[in-house]
Amino acid sequence: MNKVFLIGNLGKDPEFRAFENGGRVTRFPLATNESYTNKQGERVNLTEWHDIEVWERQAEIADKYLRKGSKVMIEGRIRTENWTDKNTNEPRQRKTIRCTSFEILSGHADNQVNSEGHVHNDSSSPAPQSPNPTDPTGDLPF
């Protein structure tokens, strides 16, 4: 199975492109962060960059709602492209994440937009409260 979930922030504004055949793609870099404590007890922060591609109708939605710094959850597949560099004749490789769905986790006020274009306004419905304030799990089904 080739499936990946990423939560991170856009490194720059998305770039939208429409093709003559009607195809559409939006591309952007996504930064994910990881932190841990090393053997010396020092806190280490790592940032990993991912090239994201969003296609067709979702590409238009991404172009409309995403901006540099937007926090987003991406679901997709890893794709590997291989080619030969025209100048050096050296083999080259690039890995991208082909997005199958996404959800905006920050941005436009308190609205959340998923890749189908549905907007969820979280400010209109308060977060569910646990019936017992000392038991944070409340009535969770697991």
Short précis:
With 142 residues, the chain is mostly beta strands. It is built from 1 helix and 8 strands. The longest helix is centred in the middle third of the chain and has 9 residues, at 57-65.
How would you characterize this protein structure?
The protein has 142 residues and is mostly beta strands. The protein has one domain (4-34, 45-123): Nucleic acid-binding proteins (OB fold (Dihydrolipoamide Acetyltransferase, E2P)), CATH 2.40.50.140. It contains one helix and eight strands; from the N terminus they run E-E-E-E-H-E-E-E-E. It has one helix spanning 57-65; strands at residues 4-10, 15-18, 24-37, 43-55, 71-84, 91-104, 111-113, 119-121. Strand 3 and strand 4 (43-55) form a beta hairpin. It is globular.
Task: Supply database-style keywords.
142 residues, mainly beta, OB fold (Dihydrolipoamide Acetyltransferase, E2P), five-stranded mixed barrel, two-stranded antiparallel sheet, 1 helix, 51% strand, disordered C terminus
